[in-house]
Amino acid sequence: MTAMIRNPILPGFNPDPSICRVGEDYYIATSTFEWYPGVQIHHSRDLVNWTLVRRPLERASQLDMRGNPDSCGVWAPCLSHADGLFYLVYTDVKRFDGNFKDAHNYIVTSPTIEGEWSDPVYVNSSGFDPSLFHDDDGRKWFLNMQWNHRTESFGGAPKSPAFDGILLQEWDPVAKKLTGAIRNIFAGSAQGLVEGPHLFKRSGWYYLTTAEGGTGYDHVVTMARSRTIEGPYEMHPQTHLITSKDHPDAALQRAGHGQYVETPDGQAYHTHLTGRPLAPLRRCTLGRETALQKCVWGEDDWLYLAQGGVVPDVDVPAPGEAVVIDKPARVETEFDSPQLPRDFQWLRTPVPERIFSLSERPGHLRLFGRESIGSWFEQALVARRQEHHSFRAETVVEFEPDTYQQAAGLTHYYNRHKFHAAAVTLHEQLGRVVTIFSCNGDFPHSRMTFPVESGVSVPFGRVHLAMEIRDNDLQFFWHADGYRTWRKLGPLLDAGVVSDEGGRGEHGSFTGAFAGVFAFDTSGRAQEADFDRFIYEAL
Q1: Closest CA to 216 of 244, 242, 188, 238
Q2: Which residues are marked as active site?
Q3: Among 29, 90, 211, 401, who pairs with 257 as Cys (CB 3.0-4.6 Å)?
Q4: Residue 312 lies in a domain
């Protein structure tokens, strides 16, 4: 019996999927934005079961995002294979607000996915979402969307669109630079906001898939084709290959931005990002995830969804037989390894030894309090993705603050505007306390509230912290070491704030919710906090 692919195949913050097949191995690269190391690469042999195998941008020469604003950093990577090498193309976006983006595009290579990747080669900065196409005549072509920073053109011309078409230029792999004419080959459809270009070739046609409509509920995958790579490109009969924009009841929303792939026997599939909103406010607390749709080729040499129409399915047929490997509902991390477990990432800095250590106290994750939990430069925050709408996270912290400027604990985190945290800190009259920091998405001011007015006084020693997220609700818990009874900490909080659409910072929110541990010391004395376990359990 043919197995079914269950969407999303990569749950929780895995957007902009670029898929690449080498032999019988499939790889998907997804965006990581300000989270370090950069780019997630998952592997599969059957398109059903996927395993995270690599984050290749792992050192300062490849990626340094200190100072990058929220939702900047690594956008829309493209993974490809040719000439015995894997090629990874990516953008490091340095600005979000305002007219400019400052999007710098690079290429790194490696003979293997799991091996060390090269230092980057700079390509251009004309726009984001780059990709590299390897033509069958040996030539290579670089694509990216063009960003127009002008609010209006000179001379009273009409307002210019920021998404100003798809650029194409030849890439010289020997000289490692762009060469020849720059051509704007595709302006997109009436949906607008054209980005995310990927080229492939079949039956003498060059097929171009792009993302349009923004990354929210109007998102789409648009397809066009041409007999020559420079165009002109004619639009798909349906214009859009995949979208949920006119189907608000579909289980998979925000469908767009993906890439075509064929199995060894010629079956067709197409990836796309997606979101799964929660009622009643339609907030995607898991961020943008990766899904996969089965496709068929029509007699007109156009690609269509196998189920017909344009709306993506949750369950689609796999290319062959496969046994679904269920992931454990409970993952307990004891921090016994000298390496950070692969589920975890941190923010922006290529110098992780400044913010954490797994060797200074074996069996513990030691965080060094640095800048505030809202810093864009150097903050000690180590976290893993939220992959379920309802889950529980627990940790145990040893932390002895000597000023209220020091805090350490457990957090449900999206960005500096949207997070909740339970923290051990110091109060002038009460001594060491457990309290709550809560930032409810009040962009751009980031006002923080403290639902526990003066904190709960706790004795010295280890403190157990937990949180339960049940759809849109979050409840913190705590108990002192030696006690088994969990006590509620603070009121029920709005977990839906920690999402793309949450709060008043919904615009420019591209990542997803994380559960993790943090420490800060705004006195500058780098007070240490030790965590000896982290439990993540689906509810």
Answers
A1: 244
A2: 378
A3: 211
A4: yes
